[in-house]
Amino acid sequence: MSPTVREGRDKMNTTISLTELATRELASALASNNGRSAVTVYGGRDAQLRQTVMALRAGDGLSEHSSPGEATLQVLTGSIRLRTADQSWHGTVGDLLPIPDDVHAVDALEDCAFLLTVAKHQ
Fold first, then answer.
1. Residue with the larger pLDDT of the pair 27 and 48
2. Which helix or strand (DSSP H or E) is residue 23 part of?
3. How would you classify residue 25: left for phi > 0, otherwise alpha for psi between -120 and 50, otherwise beta?
4. Per residue in 76-108, pLDDT tens?
């Protein structure tokens, strides 16, 4: 099943259904051995701006890591905990969480999917 993509007059005017992508990636995460799945929807490894839909099985997560730039996390389904050594934030559907510059981790409190947006430092 491919996501719904509605193209406009040029490639810059393409619409991607985040709802469909979240559903697809969550199904992949639930079926995977590591409990996660992801697909980049805009940009890429070498781009300054990158957006990725990630899905995690409840109880799994992303271990502590640093961000390569400014970043946000928008919860599409389920709920998550974003944490650093000193603080934590709970996110549910519709929440947009700025990701701290500190080393951080993400825990899936429920099966979840989120949009990760990263703008790399220049």
1. 27
2. helix 18-31
3. alpha
4. 999 999 999 999 999 999 999 999 989 999 999
Q: Which domains does the chain possess? A: 5-120 (2.60.120.10)
Which two tokens mark 57?
């099985």
CA-atom Rg of the chain in angstroms? 14
DSSP string, 58-90: TT-EEEEE--SEEEEEEEEESEEEEE-SS-EEE
Q: What is the pLDDT of residues 46-84, one digit of tens each?
A: 888 999 999 999 999 999 888 878 999 999 999 999 999
Bridge partners of 78, per DSSP, are none
Q: Side chain identity at 65, as an amino acid letter? A: H
Cα gap 89→105, rounded to integer Å? 11
Here the tokens at position 113 are: 């999917």
- Please determine, for residue 6, whether its predicted confidence score (pLDDT) is greater than 70: no
